[in-house]
Amino acid sequence: MSELVTGEAVALELRPARLPSRALAILLDLAVAMVAYLVVTVALVLATASLDEAAQIAVSIATFLLVLVGGPIAVETLSHGRSLGKMAVGLRVVRDDGGPIRFRHALVRGAVGVVEILMTFGVVAVIASLVSERGRRLGDVFAGTLVVRERVPVARTRFVPPPPPWLAGRFSGLDLSSVPDGLWLAIRQYLTRMQQLDPQVGWAMAARLAADLADRTGAPVPQGVPPAAYLAAVVQERQVREVRRAFGNGTAGGSPGVVGAAGPAVSGPAAGRPDIGGVPPTAMPVTYGPQASPARPASAPSPQATGPSVPQDATTADQPSTGFIPPA
């Protein structure tokens, strides 16, 4: 994996192509070019049979330059770095900053390739690729390009862990309209990777993200709620709102008012989608701080508290359906 940084300070993770795949792509390109060269040469020999020897030599040199040198340059320029061989193998030529190549990049690659591939039968190109850390030949070094793999194995999806059950539905009244997408992305990335972080470092990051989120929503973080649990609960509330907006009010959950340990129940087209609430059982258990399990805040209602029971129908009738029901 090669991490490149663009002019907009965006880190790109690219997989440079190695020698075997690049050699196969070059062999395919050379085979196609040689076939085209032979066909054009035979046609020109028949067409220029009446010319003198010097004219025939000039035509042969021009044919070599146009077909074996100009052809690959034109193909890479028009296809933005994907020749026939590279398309078959799944490679692409890009600039050092990850952008598409232009004519000048293809021209330098093709001109240097005449020397290191055609004249030396690929020996110079092989040695340069073996020496280079990212497998670049001399043409790539002079042109400022890199051959990368386009067909990358699909990575295993990382799921956002669910919040504790006693926080379900507690933030249904938050105003999330002022939270930017960049902050949502940072929170999701933290939640999917917090189990890999040092507990103290993860706690500090969660506290900073929770403070930023509280500033955007205008409501402080409740006392006694771990920052990571607060982030997970707010993210789940946003997912529930997106489900309601996409599939209609009251149809997001399979049975409104029921909350499981893994989040709201989702049925229909939304079932099984991790980005809108579906969380596999393998995502649990989750700890939200340095301690083994988050302590229940004093202000949170206790499941064993005595009091009149609230019928489910009456609760769902008084407030809009969000897929949650407050603890009795």
What's the overall average pLDDT, rounded?
74
Order of helices and strands: EEHHHEHHHEHHHEEH
The total of beta strands comes to: 6
Taken from the alpha-carbon principal axes, the silhouette is elongated
Number of helices: 10
Radius of gyration: 31 Å
Derived structural class: mainly alpha
Give the helix level as a range of percent: 40-55%
Largest sheet: 2 strands, antiparallel
Strand order of the largest sheet: 1-2
- Strand proportion: 5-15%
Kindly report how far apart the N and C termini lie. 51 Å
In terms of per-residue confidence, which ranges show pLDDT below 50 for 5 or more consecutive residues? 1-12, 250-284, 291-326
Describe the model.
There is one protein chain. The chain has 328 residues and is mainly alpha-helical. The chain is 47% helix and 7% strand. The protein has helices at 19-47, 53-78, 84-89, 103-119, 123-131, 138-143, 181-193, 199-217, 227-247, 312-318; strands at residues 2-5, 11-14, 91-95, 145-149, 259-260, 263-264. It has a two-stranded antiparallel ribbon. The chain has a two-stranded antiparallel sheet with strand order 3-4. Helix 2 (53-78) packs across helix 4 (103-119). The radius of gyration is 31 Å and the shape is elongated. It starts with a strand and ends in a 10-residue tail after the last helix. The model is unreliable at 1-12, 250-284 and 291-326 (pLDDT under 50).
